[in-house]
Amino acid sequence: MVVYSFYIFDRHAECIYKKKWIPRPTSTGSKGQQANGLPDGGAHAKALSAEDDAKLVFGTVFSLRNMIRKLGGQDDNFISYRTGHYKLHYYETPTSLKFVMVTDTKTNNLRIVLHQIYVSLYVEYVVKNPLSPAEHPGGIGVNCEMFELGVEQFVV
């Protein structure tokens, strides 16, 4: 399993944790095109910042989740989606925390893994930590060394 990145979003759509291990692969197609077929802008194109990347991931998850609920009803859940280059896995907690992991396309469903990260790492090291804020206003993220080490060991 190759993990590219991991994100946690709170109920206010703020990215409270992000970690990248390996950059997502780019298109191996014709020069001058992105993976989605749009022109890449040539030499003047700039990479997305970490904040913009997190916003793009959240927007994708939000849109797909809402589309699935409208088409299938409230009982249907968005679990993952796959492109030719990566697979995005999604888990939402009862408190509306959203855990998103981007992996290679060969990885099986990681919903159980994301649930385990929530239960055994996030709850233990962030929620039960009296020094960690209950809310993360203005994008103040999770700042807990034990949580970060746990995620690193869990993923790697």
Labels describing this entry:
156 residues, alpha+beta, 3 helices, 33% helix
Indicate the percent of residues in helices: 25-40%
- Biggest pleated-sheet summary: 5 strands, antiparallel
Kindly report the average pLDDT value.
81
Helical stretch tally? 3
Q: Strand-residue fraction?
A: 15-25%
Q: Which structural class should the secondary elements be placed in?
A: alpha+beta
Shape: globular
Task: Give the N-terminus to C-terminus distance in angstroms.
Answer: 9 Å
Cα radius of gyration in angstroms: 16 Å
How many beta-strand segments? 5
Strand line-up in the sheet with most strands: 2-1-5-4-3
Plain-language structure description:
It is a single chain. The protein is of the alpha+beta class and 156 residues long. 33% of the residues lie in helices and 18% in strands. The protein has three helices and five strands. The protein has a five-stranded antiparallel beta sheet with strand order 2-1-5-4-3. Strand 3 and strand 4 form a beta hairpin. Helix 2 runs antiparallel to helix 3 (145-155). 20% of the residues are buried. The model is unreliable at 29-45 (pLDDT under 50).
